[in-house]
Design brief:
globular; two-stranded antiparallel ribbon; alpha/beta; 18 helices; Spore Coat Polysaccharide Biosynthesis Protein SpsA, Chain A; nine-stranded mixed beta sheet; 11 strands
Length: 456
């Protein structure tokens, strides 16, 4: 693995300067005024907000103070071109409510205002009434705008913490939020993941049980990756992460995507250093239904409300035995590169150590997902960088493609509770069928964080 960034932010790094000059969003040009007139700040937080007039003030009021100094929060009120009138009206109400609570503020441009805030200062960027986002770039671009602004402040020497914190307008933060990052971050970490649990939402009181099931499906997947000894066994929850500023610049920021921007960013960051799971108090996303993005918790809950008879499905538990055989093959080939000369034979040999694994199905899935081809290429390079090449080539996305290929090979998705009962890597206190959604979620959360901290 490549050495990750230092625990502190490094000004003047070539990659950071190049990113800000070439790839940062235009709003970052206004950071200098904030840095010089209102800085320095100790912590930075970016919050995208679309149709959040019922949550935005609560979110801003809930920003905790920084343990070492003031917080700079950047909220991006956003909508894409062609957004519904309801979304545009909600965003307009959000902008008005912010002015009512925090004053008119200082205008940096017609679409950027800075306000005093109890925790420090608040920058509000309007990408709804003016210059809406391009179609299908939604939350990814909104997060990028906010984090680019914070990165520019950091490069000017006005943001002490190297961590660009990311949250959402429907997410509650614990009082120790910033202290968790500054107190626990390890050297070479490129991203920090906060513990999380979805809370009941007053706007959607009937959705909490299903939200717990969806959360359980996320933990099930991570526990399966951990059982398989994958190096990509981390959550990808955009409202529960902080990104090291130098590493953020090296991977060119958040991708401009309408969903899964957190997955793709963390996938890149994992190649530069470690993704660290934090301990301590949880952040609490909402369990509401939402159509802001095409998939994720809110979209899954909305689908459930439309089709309550459909059971939540997860990957067949045996796919993780197949992944384990593949990971064991790669580990053996790293220890003895001679085994990589005939990779197919090595795969067959390691498949025999997993009774549930059929070698022919494993080979077929690896071929269809492009994993064998990528591994073959990686093993042909210099030995000194082999480990990094494998990590780069066989990343979280390739792992997901491999699991999908196994699904196509006959290992069909199962209902959540059936999978939990059959998974060899999960031991609940009793059958999942006899546990409530909350009880299942609590037990999986305990297994999840126990495993993460034992690795740390």
């Amino acid at each position: 693995m490549k050495a990750g960034p230092r625990p502190s932010f490094t000004q003047g790094e070539k990659a950071t300067a190049k990113y800000l000059a070439t790839y940062a969003e235009v709003e970052a040009n206004s950071a200098e005024v904030v840095a010089l007139q209102h800085g320095p700040f100790s912590h930075g937080l970016a919050i995208p907000a679309q149709a959040e007039d019922q949550n935005i003030i609560g979110a801003l009021r809930g920003i905790p103070s920084g343990p070492t100094g003031p917080v700079l929060t950047v909220t991006v009120i956003n909508a894409c071109t062609g957004a519904s009138q309801n979304t545009l009206d909600s965003n307009l109400r959000s902008l008005k409510e912010i002015k009512q609570h925090y004053g008119t503020g200082q205008a940096l441009t017609s679409s950027i205002h800075v306000h005093k805030h109890p925790s420090g200062h608040l920058v509000v960027i309007d990408r709804s009434t003016q210059n809406p986002l391009p179609p299908k770039q939604g939350v990814g671009l909104a997060r990028k705008i906010g984090c680019d602004f914070l990165l520019a402040v950091a490069e000017l020497g006005a943001l002490k913490s190297p961590w660009l914190h990311c949250s959402d307008a429907d997410t509650r933060l614990p009082s120790q939020y910033f202290a968790q990052a500054s107190g626990q971050a390890r050297e070479h970490a490129t991203a920090l993941l906060y513990p999380f649990r979805h809370r009941e939402d007053s706007q959607s009181p009937t959705t909490h049980s299903f939200a717990m099931d969806y959360e359980s499906s996320l933990r099930y997947y991570v526990l399966g990756l951990r059982f398989a000894e994958s190096t990509h066994d981390f959550h990808t929850v955009g409202s529960a992460m902080a990104v090291h500023a130098n590493a953020y610049a090296k991977v060119r920021g958040f991708p401009r995507r309408e969903a899964a921007e957190d997955f793709y960013l963390l996938n890149k960051l994992a190649k530069l250093g470690s993704i660290q799971q934090l301990g301590g108090p949880r952040i609490e996303p909402s369990s509401r239904a939402s159509n802001r993005v095409p998939f994720g918790t809110g979209a899954a809950i909305e689908k459930h409300l439309r089709e309550p008879q459909d059971e939540l499905k997860v990957d067949h538990p045996i796919v993780f035995n197949y992944l384990k055989a593949w990971e064991a093959t790669l580990t053996a080939c790293l220890a003895d590169p001679a085994q990589s000369k005939n990779l197919s034979n090595s795969i067959r040999r390691h498949a025999q150590s997993e009774p549930e694994v059929d070698a022919s199905r494993l080979l077929s899935a690896l071929e269809k997902s492009g994993s064998i081809l990528r591994a073959d290429r990686a093993f042909k390079g210099p030995a000194s960088t082999l480990n990094q090449r494998l990590r780069d080539s066989l990343d979280s996305f390739r792992t997901l493609k491999f699991i999908h290929a196994l699904r196509d090979e006959g290992l069909a998705a199962q209902g959540l509770r059936k999978a939990l009962n059959e998974a060899s890597f999960i031991r609940l206190h009793r059958s999942a069928d006899r546990l409530s959604s909350l009880e299942v979620s609590e037990q999986l959360e305990e297994l999840d964080y126990q495993g993460a901290h034992s690795e740390n």
